[in-house]
Amino acid sequence: MGPSGPTGPVMSREEVDRALARLDAEHEAVETSLLALQDHAGRRLLEGAQLAGLTEQRWTGAEQVITRLWSGFDTYTRTLHNARELRARRRWPSRDDLAELTGLLRGTLTVAGASVPGAVPPEPGSNGPGGGELGQAARLTEELTLGDLVQRMNGWYAQALDVVAAADSVWSALPARIDLLAAELQRVRSLAHSVGVRPGEHPSGDELDQITAQLTELRAEVLRDPLAFWSPTGGSSAPGGGRPDTSRYDRAARALEDVRREIDAVLTVRQDAEQRLMSLRDLLSRADRTLAEARTARVEVLAKIAAFEVPAVSGPPTALHELLSRAVEYRRHSQWHRLSPLLESLEQRAEDELERARASLSAVTAPLAVRAELRGRLDAYRAKVAQHGMAEDRILIERYDAARRMLWSAPCDLRAAEDAVLRYQRTAQEVLVPRQGGAAHADRRGIHE
Question: Where in this protein does the record put region Disordered (predicted)?
Answer without folding.
Answer: 114-134
